[in-house]
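pasting Uracil phosphoribosyltransferase for the record, 215 residues
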Amino acid sequence: MTTANLHPRLTVVGHPLVQHKLTLLRQRETSTGEFRRLAREISLLMAYEVTRDLPLETRRIETPLEPMDSPILSGKKLCFVSILRAGDGILEGMLDLVPSARVGHIGLYRDPTTLAPVEYYLKLPEDVRSRLAVVVDPMLATGHSAAAAVERVKQAGAEQISFACLLAAPEGLSIMAEAHPEVPVFTCAVDRCLDDHAYIRPGLGDAGDRLYGTK
Ligand SMILES: O=P(O)(O)OC[C@H]1O[C@H](OP(=O)(O)OP(=O)(O)O)[C@H](O)[C@@H]1O
Ligand SMILES: O=c1cc[nH]c(=O)[nH]1
Ligand SMILES: [Mg+2]
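structre below
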């Protein structure tokens, strides 16, 4: 099956630096500090892809030598929405590239038995509706957390929404295609499948635990 069959608006970020860093990130022996650093670097590179279509306008400026009309980002710009807690490992890198972006947080965890997302926190910027909202989480596994987070952002009035993750399972992409087919999804890789505990295989393990050293 090709990736286009899994999701109509899927981008796999194939840049060699991203792919190299993703391999290091996946490795069992990668330390917590190194994992956090790699996730941040990959996210910065992903932010470059995610923002590729931001609209530009022209501003009259003066260089030291003469005036010119030069391109500049137009209107209200970006809001990153992190799905706590592992989303914060992506947020840092995206903010490195776009330091002025607004930030929202959605606290979600997967119920270990039902795997349904349980919401425990929500705070979005008031003007999220006039920004491109980029929902971030390293893992798109069953897809239920991402689908629920995007739904929340839609309820807040946002009309332009993207989702960015490090790894996606085919199952999660199908759920996103069903629930939010118009929302572009960016990932660094589409892995083989989910296992019996809904972990992505081959995957990278538990992203939150690896980012924060909690296991
Ligand atoms: O696609 P899904 O099947 O919904 O799974 C993906 C979710 O699972 C992980 O979070 P987790 O529940 O482990 O919470 P954490 O970030 O607090 O560790 C991950 O960061 C996603 O949010
Ligand atoms: O593989 C997975 C699936 C869900 N959450 C993770 O952190 N890893
Ligand atoms: Mg986790």
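The domain at 3-51+78-212 is CATH 3.40.50.2020 (Rossmann fold).
The two ends are 35 Å apart (CA to CA).
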